[in-house]
Predict the 3D structure of the following.
Amino acid sequence: MILRGIGASEGIGIGKAVCIREKNLDYSSVSYAGREAEKRRLQETIEKFEAQTGSMAGQILERAGQKESEILTGQIAMLSDPFMQSQMAEMIESGQCAEAAVDQVCTMYAEMFAGVDDELMRQRAADVRDLRGRMLSILLGAGEPDLSRLPVGSVLVIHDLPPSLAVGLSRENIAAILTETGGKTSHSAILARALELPAVLGVPKAMETVRDGDGIIVDGSEGVVMLNPDQLTLGKYLKKQAAFEQKRAKLEVYRNRETRDADGRRYALYANIGSAAEAEAAAQAGAEGIGLFRTEFLFMDRAKPPAEAEQLEAYQAVSRRFADGEVIIRTLDIGGDKMVGYLGMDREDNPFLGHRAIRYCLDHPDLYRVQLRALLRAGAEQHNIKIMLPLVTSLEEIRGARALLEQCKTELEQEGHPYDREIRLGIMVETPAAALIADLLAQECDFFSIGTNDLTQYVMAVDRGNARVEKLYTVFHPAVLRSIRSVIQAAHAADIPVGMCGEAAADPRLIPLLMSWGLDEFSVGASQVLPTRAGIHRWRAEEAGQAAREAMSLSTSSGVQGYLEAIARP
Ligand code: PEP
Ligand code: MG
């Protein structure tokens, strides 16, 4: 039998299914032991939860990384929110047992987060549900399944994989993961990729269909699951698995190399990060610099904006880690699908077309200046930080940001703080307006980086997060490709460098086009650094030029995509 879902972490896992079903967390027979006793039970449970979670976070930090462990420390932070705790205490005051207080308050938060049309908020809903289940387990004395004890070759089948369970995951005994929920950016997917465990997520009714002990193959590259495969299928996938492992091992030779095409022309290959901690993983993955630091993540999951000192520390850490390379830091790109609760941003009918990114920042100079000052100061040591403005549509926006930057320089001068006097200021080209006046914008900024995620969305008039119109969201559309080509040309005509930090930079099918148009810098997710370096290495300029000319002579997305797939170099 074949099941289909979302291929969220590449690779082939083969083994026996282990289905993890929900524990019984029914507390209907628990009676109220009185106000003080219930409050004490709640307090003890909170302390136990914090201790357990802290130790899990420590383990996951060693095995996966900072970002993954922050998922768990985030749960501790969530639980220490005084508002959440006082709501639980109030319920106990009103005669409810500690279990009911935890259940109802967590469920209320989870529903609130789940109702917001924002991937990050939905993730928080999953985190609160995980928190609820584990708090109830502690209160009711129900044990957590210990995944580290599962037999070698187990394929984990679970409705949802909460971070607290993921801590027990190891490639030593787990062959793959299969879940009913989650998408490519869910925490389960992040963890699976960090551990390089094949995963297919979002398989409908997996828990009903799969039985414990079933033979199972998970193809995380294709998003396909084979249940009780016959010998022929098994043989086919064993070969595919060996080929995948071999391919991954072959990429190792690219780790400490420069990024050059087959003729020896050099390209910059940078990584995209969302926190200072990720800079380490990016460096280890072989990135030569940072092409996009999405600073908005520093502003999320907290009660107020990070102060100048905190921002300075984060930017400095990345600048130091890449002391010999460049670090492109994008200023706050909030709004759209990235809401920051405490800023009191209004809900909008069309948030992607609304008061977001540079528009919001220029209208909130006090907030923006803190970030610009921190960036200027962070650039003082290595002089390798470049400031990048998101969602630019006009020259006025660049001028507005530059004016604020100059004001900040004057202040820092007067205060005697060292800062980078020559700091470079560039823009994301991710709107049709910016692409169409790229020649004008290039006169007033120091570099471009093409944001294909948004550029595709706006050129195609297709919401990048809406699965129903996903087929129309394609970078292979001639309109998107022409925009990219003309932006690169405009940058070079004005003699400024141009990179790409949207997901398309990591698409091997586009490499010959981007190379032949002269893209200077590719910025990709850390796990895509080596495949991209290898991909660039496979092409000679002349062949890439031919491929680009042919692709651009085709008039449909499917035509272009089909052609580029046919000539792809594995
Ligand atoms: C983009 O739009 O291509 C981009 C890189 O930025 P983000 O995905 O953060 O919008
Ligand atoms: Mg964008």
Observations:
- The two ends are 29 Å apart (CA to CA).
- The mean pLDDT is 90.
- The chain is about 50% helix and 15% strand.
